[in-house]
Protein backbone atom coordinates (compact mmCIF):
# COMPACT_ATOMS: atom_id res chain seq x y z
CA UNK A 1 0.00 0.00 0.00
CA UNK A 2 2.86 2.35 0.87
CA UNK A 3 4.53 1.63 -2.50
CA UNK A 4 1.23 2.34 -4.28
CA UNK A 5 0.92 5.71 -2.54
CA UNK A 6 4.51 6.59 -3.44
CA UNK A 7 3.94 5.65 -7.10
CA UNK A 8 0.72 7.66 -7.20
CA UNK A 9 2.42 10.75 -5.76
CA UNK A 10 5.30 10.41 -8.24
CA UNK A 11 2.89 10.14 -11.16
CA UNK A 12 0.94 13.20 -10.02
CA UNK A 13 4.15 15.23 -9.66
CA UNK A 14 5.33 14.05 -13.09
CA UNK A 15 2.07 15.09 -14.77
CA UNK A 16 2.15 18.48 -13.00
CA UNK A 17 5.73 19.09 -14.16
CA UNK A 18 4.81 18.18 -17.75
CA UNK A 19 1.80 20.50 -17.72
CA UNK A 20 3.80 23.35 -16.19
CA UNK A 21 6.58 22.90 -18.72
CA UNK A 22 4.10 22.99 -21.63
CA UNK A 23 2.61 26.26 -20.33
CA UNK A 24 6.05 27.80 -19.78
CA UNK A 25 7.16 26.86 -23.27
CA UNK A 26 4.05 28.38 -24.83
CA UNK A 27 4.48 31.60 -22.84
CA UNK A 28 8.13 31.71 -23.82
CA UNK A 29 7.17 31.39 -27.48
CA UNK A 30 4.68 34.26 -27.47
CA UNK A 31 7.25 36.46 -29.22
CA UNK A 32 7.61 33.94 -32.04
CA UNK A 33 5.93 34.41 -35.42
CA UNK A 34 5.58 30.65 -35.89
CA UNK A 35 2.11 29.66 -34.80
CA UNK A 36 -0.10 29.52 -37.86
CA UNK A 37 -2.81 26.87 -37.93
CA UNK A 38 -5.48 25.76 -40.38
CA UNK A 39 -8.71 24.99 -38.52
CA UNK A 40 -11.81 23.96 -40.40
CA UNK A 41 -10.00 24.81 -43.63
CA UNK A 42 -9.44 28.39 -42.46
CA UNK A 43 -5.98 29.90 -41.92
CA UNK A 44 -6.33 31.09 -38.33
CA UNK A 45 -3.02 32.94 -38.09
CA UNK A 46 -1.12 33.12 -34.83
CA UNK A 47 -3.40 31.88 -32.08
CA UNK A 48 -3.73 32.61 -28.37
CA UNK A 49 -5.76 30.85 -25.70
CA UNK A 50 -6.64 33.42 -23.03
CA UNK A 51 -8.64 32.31 -20.02
CA UNK A 52 -9.93 33.25 -16.61
CA UNK A 53 -10.36 30.45 -14.08
CA UNK A 54 -11.56 31.02 -10.52
CA UNK A 55 -11.45 27.42 -9.34
CA UNK A 56 -9.09 25.70 -11.76
CA UNK A 57 -11.70 23.94 -13.91
CA UNK A 58 -11.46 26.31 -16.87
CA UNK A 59 -7.65 26.33 -16.57
CA UNK A 60 -7.48 22.57 -17.25
CA UNK A 61 -9.65 22.90 -20.35
CA UNK A 62 -7.66 25.91 -21.57
CA UNK A 63 -4.41 23.98 -21.25
CA UNK A 64 -5.80 21.11 -23.35
CA UNK A 65 -7.19 23.54 -25.93
CA UNK A 66 -3.81 25.24 -26.28
CA UNK A 67 -2.21 21.85 -26.86
CA UNK A 68 -4.93 20.85 -29.32
CA UNK A 69 -4.46 23.87 -31.60
CA UNK A 70 -0.78 24.59 -30.91
CA UNK A 71 -1.54 27.97 -29.38
CA UNK A 72 0.18 30.19 -26.86
CA UNK A 73 -1.60 30.54 -23.53
CA UNK A 74 -2.30 33.47 -21.22
CA UNK A 75 -4.06 33.48 -17.87
CA UNK A 76 -6.36 36.41 -17.10
CA UNK A 77 -5.76 37.01 -13.39
CA UNK A 78 -7.63 39.38 -11.07
CA UNK A 79 -5.58 41.86 -9.10
CA UNK A 80 -7.24 40.44 -5.99
CA UNK A 81 -7.74 36.65 -6.24
CA UNK A 82 -11.20 35.27 -5.59
CA UNK A 83 -11.74 33.33 -2.37
CA UNK A 84 -14.25 30.55 -1.85
CA UNK A 85 -16.50 33.01 -0.01
CA UNK A 86 -16.22 35.45 -2.93
CA UNK A 87 -17.61 32.79 -5.25
CA UNK A 88 -20.65 31.92 -3.14
CA UNK A 89 -23.42 32.79 -5.58
CA UNK A 90 -26.07 32.11 -2.93
CA UNK A 91 -24.75 34.98 -0.82
CA UNK A 92 -26.20 38.27 -2.08
CA UNK A 93 -23.32 40.12 -0.44
CA UNK A 94 -20.52 38.00 -1.89
CA UNK A 95 -17.97 39.67 -4.15
CA UNK A 96 -19.02 37.78 -7.28
CA UNK A 97 -22.72 38.50 -6.69
CA UNK A 98 -22.06 42.22 -6.27
CA UNK A 99 -19.88 42.32 -9.39
CA UNK A 100 -22.34 40.44 -11.57
CA UNK A 101 -25.27 42.58 -10.44
CA UNK A 102 -23.49 45.66 -11.77
CA UNK A 103 -22.94 45.43 -15.54
CA UNK A 104 -20.58 48.41 -15.38
CA UNK A 105 -18.29 46.79 -12.79
CA UNK A 106 -14.78 46.06 -14.05
CA UNK A 107 -12.58 44.01 -11.69
CA UNK A 108 -8.93 45.09 -11.91
CA UNK A 109 -6.41 42.84 -13.64
CA UNK A 110 -3.19 41.60 -12.04
CA UNK A 111 -1.29 42.49 -15.22
CA UNK A 112 -1.77 43.59 -18.81
CA UNK A 113 0.99 41.53 -20.37
CA UNK A 114 -0.95 39.74 -23.12
CA UNK A 115 0.60 40.66 -26.48
CA UNK A 116 -2.75 40.78 -28.28
CA UNK A 117 -1.30 42.67 -31.26
CA UNK A 118 0.70 39.55 -32.17
CA UNK A 119 -2.37 37.33 -32.60
CA UNK A 120 -5.07 36.93 -35.23
CA UNK A 121 -7.32 34.49 -33.39
CA UNK A 122 -8.01 34.38 -29.65
CA UNK A 123 -9.81 31.53 -27.94
CA UNK A 124 -11.29 33.21 -24.86
CA UNK A 125 -12.36 31.01 -21.95
CA UNK A 126 -14.10 31.50 -18.63
CA UNK A 127 -16.63 29.93 -16.25
CA UNK A 128 -20.25 30.95 -16.83
CA UNK A 129 -21.46 33.21 -14.02
CA UNK A 130 -25.11 34.22 -13.89
CA UNK A 131 -25.63 32.96 -17.47
CA UNK A 132 -22.89 35.20 -18.91
CA UNK A 133 -19.13 35.76 -18.76
CA UNK A 134 -17.64 37.20 -15.55
CA UNK A 135 -17.16 40.97 -15.81
CA UNK A 136 -13.39 40.52 -15.56
CA UNK A 137 -13.64 39.33 -19.17
CA UNK A 138 -14.99 42.76 -20.10
CA UNK A 139 -12.03 44.29 -18.24
CA UNK A 140 -9.67 42.14 -20.30
CA UNK A 141 -11.32 43.03 -23.60
CA UNK A 142 -11.29 46.74 -22.78
CA UNK A 143 -7.60 46.65 -21.86
CA UNK A 144 -6.36 45.88 -25.39
CA UNK A 145 -7.12 46.72 -29.01
CA UNK A 146 -9.00 43.82 -30.59
CA UNK A 147 -9.64 45.57 -33.90
CA UNK A 148 -9.79 43.01 -36.72
CA UNK A 149 -9.35 40.07 -34.34
CA UNK A 150 -11.41 36.90 -34.23
CA UNK A 151 -12.46 35.78 -30.74
CA UNK A 152 -13.85 32.27 -30.23
CA UNK A 153 -15.46 31.71 -26.86
CA UNK A 154 -15.27 28.56 -24.76
CA UNK A 155 -16.57 28.10 -21.26
CA UNK A 156 -17.26 25.75 -18.39
CA UNK A 157 -20.40 25.73 -16.29
CA UNK A 158 -22.52 23.74 -13.92
CA UNK A 159 -25.29 23.57 -16.50
CA UNK A 160 -25.87 27.13 -17.71
CA UNK A 161 -25.46 27.95 -21.41
CA UNK A 162 -23.88 31.05 -22.97
CA UNK A 163 -27.09 33.05 -22.72
CA UNK A 164 -26.39 36.68 -23.71
CA UNK A 165 -22.63 36.34 -23.31
CA UNK A 166 -21.74 37.40 -26.86
CA UNK A 167 -24.06 40.39 -26.65
CA UNK A 168 -22.57 41.55 -23.35
CA UNK A 169 -18.99 41.14 -24.54
CA UNK A 170 -19.45 42.94 -27.86
CA UNK A 171 -19.84 46.24 -26.03
CA UNK A 172 -16.21 45.88 -24.90
CA UNK A 173 -14.58 45.46 -28.32
CA UNK A 174 -14.40 47.46 -31.58
CA UNK A 175 -17.02 46.76 -34.27
CA UNK A 176 -14.36 45.11 -36.43
CA UNK A 177 -13.74 42.41 -33.82
CA UNK A 178 -15.65 39.20 -34.53
CA UNK A 179 -16.84 37.34 -31.42
CA UNK A 180 -18.05 33.79 -32.02
CA UNK A 181 -20.02 31.74 -29.50
CA UNK A 182 -17.92 28.61 -29.33
CA UNK A 183 -18.58 25.68 -27.05
CA UNK A 184 -19.22 24.71 -23.46
CA UNK A 185 -16.40 22.32 -22.59
CA UNK A 186 -18.01 20.61 -19.63
CA UNK A 187 -17.51 17.09 -18.36
CA UNK A 188 -14.63 14.85 -19.38
CA UNK A 189 -12.56 16.50 -22.07
CA UNK A 190 -9.49 15.26 -23.92
CA UNK A 191 -7.12 16.87 -26.37
CA UNK A 192 -8.51 14.76 -29.28
CA UNK A 193 -12.14 15.68 -28.51
CA UNK A 194 -11.27 19.36 -28.21
CA UNK A 195 -9.25 19.25 -31.42
CA UNK A 196 -12.23 17.63 -33.15
CA UNK A 197 -14.37 20.59 -32.09
CA UNK A 198 -11.88 23.19 -33.34
CA UNK A 199 -11.76 21.44 -36.70
CA UNK A 200 -15.48 22.11 -37.16
CA UNK A 201 -14.97 25.87 -36.94
CA UNK A 202 -15.44 27.93 -40.07
CA UNK A 203 -14.54 31.51 -40.80
Folded structure, characterized:
The chain is α/β, with parallel strands linked by helices and 203 residues long. It contains six helices and six strands. It has helices spanning 2-28, 57-69, 95-100, 135-142, 165-170, 191-198; strands spanning 36-39, 42-51, 72-75, 121-127, 150-156, 178-184. Helix 2 (57-69) links the parallel strand 2 and strand 3. Helix 2 crosses helix 6. The longest helix has 27 residues, at 2-28. The radius of gyration is 17 Å and the shape is globular.
Properties at a glance:
203 residues, alpha/beta, 6-stranded mixed sheet, 33% helix, 19% strand, globular
Contiguous low-pLDDT stretches (5 residues minimum) are 24-44
Strand content: 15-25%
Work out the radius of gyration.
Answer: 17 Å
Classify the secondary structure makeup into a structural class. alpha/beta
Name the shape in a single word.
globular
Mean pLDDT score, rounded? 83
Number of strands: 6
Helix amount:
25-40%
Short précis:
The chain has 203 residues and is an alpha/beta fold.
Write the layout of secondary structure elements.
Blueprint: H1 2-28, E1 36-39, E2 42-51, H2 57-69, E3 72-75, H3 95-100, E4 121-127, H4 135-142, E5 150-156, H5 165-170, E6 178-184, H6 191-198
Parallel strand pairs: 2-3, 2-4, 4-5, 5-6
Antiparallel strand pairs: 1-2
Helix pairs in contact: 2-6
Amino acid sequence: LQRFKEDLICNLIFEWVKSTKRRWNRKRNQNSNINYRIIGGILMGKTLVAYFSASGVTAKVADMLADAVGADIYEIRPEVPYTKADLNWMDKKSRSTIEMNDKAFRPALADKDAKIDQYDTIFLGFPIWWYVAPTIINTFLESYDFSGKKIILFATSGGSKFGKTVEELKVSVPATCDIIEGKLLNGKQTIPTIRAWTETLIG
